[in-house]
Each structure stands twice: as structure tokens, then as C-alpha cells.
Amino acid sequence: MTNRTFAIIKPDAVKNNNTGLIFDHILKAGFNVLSARLIKMTLAQAEGFYGVHAERPFFGELTEFMSSGQCMVLALEKDNAVPAWRETIGATNPEEAAEGTIRRLFATSIGENAVHGSDSDENAQKEIAFFFPDTELIANN
Ligand code: CMP
């Protein structure tokens, strides 16, 4: 079944000029890109997006980092998009990420880990809606 997931190419990856290489991974892994936009989040936007982590000790570090520079937000489509994208990016901690995954290749630490991926279909819908109006989601067929 074709599903959607939400991805972010995070500020560390954009700063290190890895946006294009990561975009290439996305396409080669068979995802359709429904929309993509380069943005700089405000701190309030980062706090809203990561609200589920508000009580975690790393919340301040996470939201400051995510609002520190440009990032690319993407709405992706593929069969079983959520688990497929999580497999493509690898474990949150790059030291635990499998060989060949995006985080293994491009992440430097658990905080600056190159990319984000939704953890469920329900959250994917919410996260896509946080950044993209329906009218900007364009199927390429
Ligand atoms: P992401 O997939 O964007 O979802 C939540 C983020 O919190 C996660 O990637 C990590 O970048 C970050 N995170 C998780 N655990 C830690 C931690 N222990 N210290 C700093 N950041 C963390």
C-alpha cells in the first residue's frame, strides 16, 4: 500500500553540503517526492514540531539545533513509506546505524544526525500537515 512519510534534511547535513547526496539516496531508494522546501525554522516552529519531546532533557539542545540554520522538509511517498524511510536512514544514533544508511554516512552525533523520519503513519500525517498544505503535495504520475 502506498503511504506517505515526512523527512527533514537537518541543518548539519545542509551546512556540510550533503543535501544533494541525501536527495539522491531518497530517489534511488524509490521514494516519490511530493514536495520539498528549503526553510529555516524559528525556535517556536521547532518547539511545536518536536512538542512530543518537550519533557526530554535534550529538548532545548534539539530545538536550538533545528532552528540554527537551513533545513529541507520533504513529503515522501512509497509502499510502506514510514518503515522504508526509517530503514533508509538507520538508527537515531549514527554509531548504531547500519552500513550504507544515511545516518551512518552523514550523521556526526545523536543530536546532529543528518535526517529526521516519522515513526508512524499517524505522526507522518501530522508532520506533513505541519509544513505543507494539501495543495502543495503533488503526485508525480
Ligand atoms: P529525530 O528523528 O529528528 O527525532 C527526535 C530527535 O531527538 C532525534 O532525531 C535526535 O536528533 C534527537 N535526540 C534523541 N536523543 C537525543 C539525545 N540523547 N541527545 C540529543 N538529541 C537527541
Question: What structural keywords apply?
Answer:
single chain; 141 residues; Alpha-Beta Plaits; 39% helix; binds adenosine-3',5'-cyclic-monophosphate
**Radius of gyration from the CA trace?**
14 Å
**How many beta-strand elements?**
4
**Tally of individual helices:** 7
List the ligand species: adenosine-3',5'-cyclic-monophosphate
Helix content: 25-40%
In whole angstroms, the N-to-C terminal distance is 16 Å
Query: What gross morphology would you assign?
Result: globular
Summarize it:
With 141 residues, the protein is α+β, with helices and mostly antiparallel strands.
Describe the protein's topology.
Blueprint: E1 2-9, H1 11-15, H2 19-28, E2 32-40, H3 43-49, H4 59-66, E3 70-79, H5 81-89, H6 102-106, E4 115-117, H7 121-131
Antiparallel strand pairs: 1-3, 1-4, 2-3
Helix pairs in contact: 3-4
The chain binds adenosine-3',5'-cyclic-monophosphate.
Structural account:
With 141 residues, this protein is an alpha+beta fold. It is 39% helix and 21% strand. It has one domain: Alpha-Beta Plaits (2-Layer Sandwich). It is built from seven helices and four strands. The mean pLDDT is 96. The structure holds adenosine-3',5'-cyclic-monophosphate (CMP). Adenosine-3',5'-cyclic-monophosphate binds next to helix 4 and strand 4.
